[in-house]
Amino acid sequence: MSDWKKLYKERVTSADEAVKHIKSGDRVFLAHATGESLLLTEAMVRNAASYEDVEIVHMVAMGKGEYCKPEHAKNFRHNALFVGTPTRQAVAEGRGDFTPVFIHHIPGLLETTLKPDVVLLQLSPPNEEGYCSFGISVDYTKPAAENAKITIAQINKNMPFTLGDSLIHVSKLDHIVEHDSPLIELKPPTLGETEIAIGKNCASLVRNGDCLQLGIGGIPDAVLAGLTDKNDLGIHTEMFSDGVVDLARKGIVNNARKNFNTGKFISAFLMGTRKLYDFVDKNPEVEMHPFTYCNNPIIAGKNDNLVSINSCVQVDLMGQVVSDCIGELQISGVGGQVDFVRAASFSKGGRSILAMPSCVKGKGVSKIVPFIDHGAAVTTSRFDVDYIVTEFGIAHLRGQTLRERAFRLIEIAHPDFRDGLKKEFERRFHRSYPSK
């Protein structure tokens, strides 16, 4: 038996025993999004009575988030780097916190102000050299494992073995839990007429040979659906999902014209179904990297013709973009939005697109507004913004005056709200609203 196999065998334990190594006051990082080990998280929650004031840190939560429940307020406190559905209420009610941070800065914080005590991982089985793969969650998860005092890893044969900067040796794992369970999956969203129209408008800004960054949700998926007439597209992103696989199988995404990492899909994490996970397993064309690589604007900006496509919540007439809160309510985080808006500005031929429906569905509220909501925070500044897209059209704001920006935004607002916005235009700029 080789040395690593002997070491592996010695460190195998159960989930309930492994989480006993978490101590009161510890900072515990969970693997990101679909990479979370539900087995270890649930074991930790079962052991809650043994803990006081354990800080749980992660970005997108795809599990149940039971550590955020009121009955566990003395045992756990959540520190969200990205607020999600299972954690939103805890942050809103003061049982949790939100830390604003650009994604590419997170690994650096893991060496300083957010240094982990414990990290809960989910990894592939080791290869012949004793290396496991972080699979679908490299992002901040690999840097967290490298900086934690204690690493606890579920070894799961269902985790794909992805390549790139995505490996960890068995010798770096303190406690190993062998358990094969289905990975968390994110099903493709159902696209309505509004999303399809937005997707077509965004897709019209994409050219053959472009390199894409795509966010999460219906709008990025609708964009992918609108790219079937393109060719030689590339991927450099923080995440991608099933829609990219569909385009890759059609030969539309092939990374052939990328001037940087030619022939490679570059990503930090993955969110999709088994179709996606099977596609990336041992795929030499797919490279997974931490956020310090994927999301560093200077590195990502080395890709010529980089097009970033992300969603937003609200835009004011100056072009200030709100994407992570509704008034004072924190609903998400910056994600990769600003990283890639800036990367696109560094890129030769780059473009950044921020897309949203023109109004809140069923509520009669415009998303293009004179002023952002009270308490809301600007995600992408008016100095960074490039294209804003709704189902009614495209507003190119970069290099435009405030007056021209307001005009272009009003023209893509929902028709029900344009008259009110035009009155605000005339009040603010002391002139009549121009006719087309």
Structure notes:
The protein has 436 residues and is of the alpha/beta class. The protein is built from 15 helices and 27 strands. The strands form eight sheets. A seven-stranded parallel sheet has the order 4-3-2-1-5-7-10, sandwiched between helices. A six-stranded mixed sheet has the order 12-11-17-22-26-27, with helices on both faces. A three-stranded parallel sheet has the order 8-16-14, with no helix packed on it. Helix 7 packs across helix 8. The longest helix has 15 residues, at 415-429. The model has no long low-confidence stretch (mean pLDDT 97).
Helical content stands at 25-40%
What Rg, in angstroms, do the CA atoms define? 23 Å
Number of helices: 15
Number of strands: 27
Distance between the termini: 78 Å
Task: Write down the overall geometry.
Answer: globular
- Helix and strand content put the structural class at alpha/beta
Mean pLDDT: 97
What about the largest sheet? 7 strands, parallel
Contiguous low-pLDDT stretches (5 residues minimum) are none
Strand order of the largest sheet: 4-3-2-1-5-7-10
Taken as a percent bin, the fraction of beta residues is: 15-25%
